[in-house]
């Protein structure tokens, strides 16, 4: 409004153009993850092909590592992500271990989320729930989390404890559209089923190896090796070792420790048993289980 002339006038052209650009930027921030210039039906068809491809890989018994790699690559491509990460949740139901990621750009400029270890409890405390997601294949409910302005996380459930965490890093702040929630739900459902199937297959295989070793009269070392494998598969992130007791010398002798560092296993050799002689020495001395939460 020009008070001296008593009339309204349009702002200069360059101001109008900048205002339109600013308005467009604000609107763009509210777009879903998919490309705005695409027909929604085309996006849905592409999503269906992605889910069908992952489902086919799962039915073919593809290695779990390859499943994660395929899923991360396809999600980065379909949802225009900067990065997609898959994290394994260990048996303490809190520790995260990065198992696969895909970036669409140089990793040096990629928004960092979990390349430094974080705990699941901390993530749940610091994040907000965007959606409650039902996984039909497992009849379980999980949560889509807003981890940061440009990052979302989806917990991949398991039978006894969460199997993993899927993390999506976007180029800028956006909301998750219903079709994209459905896509992530289907991907998480396929991966959750694949994880449980692989765990069951590995458990059955190791149990069979143990029984075969006993039935065929294999040497004790071989049988113990399969037993250690069995326990470590049931408790990802754990290390199993078996020590023998020299009753006369009251010392522990080396047995089997397939996953322990050699230096650590060697340090246990010749350990005197007794009260407060470490968890192994105390268990051998008392003849009862000893549980130590922090060694």
Task: Write a concise keyword list for the protein shown above.
295 residues; alpha+beta; 6-stranded antiparallel β-sheet; two-stranded antiparallel ribbon; 8 strands; 43% helix
Helix coverage percent? 40-55%
- Mean pLDDT reading: 75
Taking pLDDT < 50 over at least 5 consecutive residues as the criterion, the unreliable ranges are 5-42
Distance between the termini: 76 Å
| Cα-based radius of gyration, to the nearest Å | 27 Å
The major beta sheet can be summarized as:
6 strands, antiparallel
Beta-strand portion reads 15-25%
- Helix segment tally: 8
Question: Which structural category fits the helices and strands?
Answer: alpha+beta
Gist?
This protein has 295 residues and is α+β, with helices and mostly antiparallel strands.
Descriptive notes:
- The protein is elongated, with a radius of gyration of 27 Å.
- The protein is built from eight helices and eight strands.
- The longest helix has 38 residues.
- It is an alpha+beta fold and 295 residues long.
- A six-stranded antiparallel β-sheet has the order 2-1-6-5-4-3, sandwiched between helices.
